[in-house]
């Protein structure tokens, strides 16, 4: 059974909207948590391509032109610099413009996974894989603490 969670978010222009996100089914797996984060993190970061993880971005198709790539030295240099920058960055890394974006991610995590984090934790991780692992460990710790008499 798929449970849908609606979490409220605030865009950079101050409008409130609700976004439906399916809660992963129990038991939680790394893949299901990471996939859910791939949906909520871009929404919480206002879908800004400069902030969201590369793993969440839609690949852009190459535009063909009549000019041969070798003849355009400027575009070749720009592409090479961009490729180096992309290679240095972990595809799951994301960044923030303001603390409110981290608060949105915290709120969504609380509503979807029943785990509460302060924004500083999300800012410190700033990576889908690290955050997914943190959620799984937190959920495991919470479930074992309720079993202790």
Describe what this molecule looks like in 3D.
By secondary structure, this protein is mostly helical. The chain has one domain (3-57, 87-147). The protein is 49% helix and 11% strand. The protein has five helices and two strands. A two-stranded antiparallel sheet has the order 1-2. Helix 1 (30-44) runs antiparallel to helix 3 (99-113) and helix 3 (99-113) packs across helix 4. The protein is globular and about 50 Å long. The chain starts with a strand and ends with a helix. The model is unreliable at 9-16 and 62-84 (pLDDT under 50).
Write the layout of secondary structure elements.
Layout: E1 3-10, E2 16-23, H1 30-44, H2 73-88, H3 99-113, H4 119-125, H5 128-147
Antiparallel strand pairs: 1-2
State the main characteristics.
149 residues, mainly alpha, 2 strands, two-stranded antiparallel ribbon
Note the gap between the termini: 31 Å
Number of helices: 5
Rounded to an integer in angstroms, the radius of gyration calculated over CA atoms is 19 Å
Structural class, by secondary structure, is mainly alpha
Low-confidence stretches: 9-16, 62-84
Q: How many strand segments?
A: 2
Number of domains: 1
Mean pLDDT reading: 77
- Estimate percent helicity: 40-55%
| SS strand fraction | 5-15%
In which order are the strands of the major sheet placed? 1-2
Q: What is the H/E string?
A: EEHHHHH
The biggest sheet, with number of strands, parallel, antiparallel or mixed sense and barrel status, is: 2 strands, antiparallel
Shape: globular
